[in-house]
Amino acid sequence: MISWRKHYKRGLIAIGLLLSTSASIYAQGDAKNGEKLFKANCTACHALDKQMVGPALGGVVDRLKKEQNLDTDWLHKWIKDNKALRASGDKYANEVYEKFNKTEMPAFPALSDQDIDDILEYTTNPPAPEPAADAAATAGTDSMAALEAANKESANSKIILISLFAIGGLLLWLLFKLRQLVKLQQSEELAGLNETRATSFADMYKRYHYVGKGILVVLGVLAAYGIWNWMMWIGVYKGYKPEQPIYFSHKIHAGENKIDCQLCHSSAKYGKVSEIPSMNVCMNCHRTISEYNGKYMEPGKDKAFYDGEIKKIYAATGWDPEKQQYTGKTQPVEWTRIHNMPDFVYFNHSQHVVAGEQAIINSFNKKNPDAKIDVVCKACHGQIDTMNVVQMANDFTMGWCIECHRTTEVDMNNGYNKEYFKNLHEKLKKQYGSGTKITVDAIGGLECGKCHY
């Protein structure tokens, strides 16, 4: 009996030591610092609560201990140089590599042991968010906004009421004046005057036919001008911004995240047409970005809205974010084209982006000192990095193009122009002098055949 009690007590002590050892794993690091390190180094491939490119890391320390009987030393080796760990013949390291499609995790030799402990502490005991202050501030802001809206509505109601009283008073005053005019019309003093006045349209036209003909001529000219002006603006859609099947904010991508235009529209530099990027281009980033965590929110939009649009990308490409693999079931996206030149107009993007890039930027900035641009795309497409919904920023008429060709100075230091227009450049210098500015129209920019088939 005594022996049994001794063993019982020893068992309890052993369990206590085991639990204390296990608990110490969770108390080796700083979770707040670990959160910063995790977001800086790990979020491209990992999340705490779901599988992405790599496995979910929430509770990874405890899970690894239970399933593989591996401690944090193994995790240190894996994080610092997983390739070396696999090369050493570590069985579980190679299993993980095979399981996740042989996607090699980057090595992090710069992370210290304490940094890794902080990250592991964050994955085990992530610090609770502190929404109270934000919620209170939001509630306060909403309350103030509601109060301001109520005050504004009350003020508007008063203005409407006063306006109605004013209109009513004006109508009464007009009625009073009309009664006075009627009485005056019935007086004997105006009887003789009424006999000399025209009582029909025919009499009026007979007396004032010259004035009438003049008015008709003016009206005819105005009508002709109106028709001509209307016809000249057929096909001009400045400000056109259709709703797209998947919401895409250029302000978030090009503005907030500083993504270069040509990363997505690569053919603008090398081809005639700047094509709509394929959904595979979107997936280059959104394969690992499954939710929106940016600070910028367009008025009327929230995180749930942006997350829903990302899910549309997954549906279109047939991507399963849970299994991190393609299903093969794709859905075509019917984008609405915004910029579309007529069939009889030839326009080459690469010619402007490569040969004319610096010339166009310099010309635009010279003419618009208060709205300078840093990329050539903005000269035609406007401040695209500020647009939530892309719209046609310019007229894109023939006159608009010709004006640009007449005022844009050719950059003869450009390697393409320097070689291609070498002889023409020398000829123009001899003809107009070495200091003469050469604009696009001087190198054939106004020839009909340059732009029309």
TrEMBL record:
Residues 29-127 form the Cytochrome c domain. The chain crosses the membrane at residues 159-176, 214-236. InterPro entries: Cyt_c-like_dom, Cyt_c-like_dom_sf, Multihaem_cyt_sf. It holds the Pfam family Cytochrom_C. Keywords: Heme, Iron, Membrane, Metal-binding, Signal, Transmembrane, Transmembrane helix. Residues 1-27 form the signal peptide. One of its GO terms (molecular function) is heme binding. PANTHER family: CYTOCHROME C7-LIKE DOMAIN-CONTAINING PROTEIN, LIPOPROTEIN CYTOCHROME C. This is C-type cytochrome.
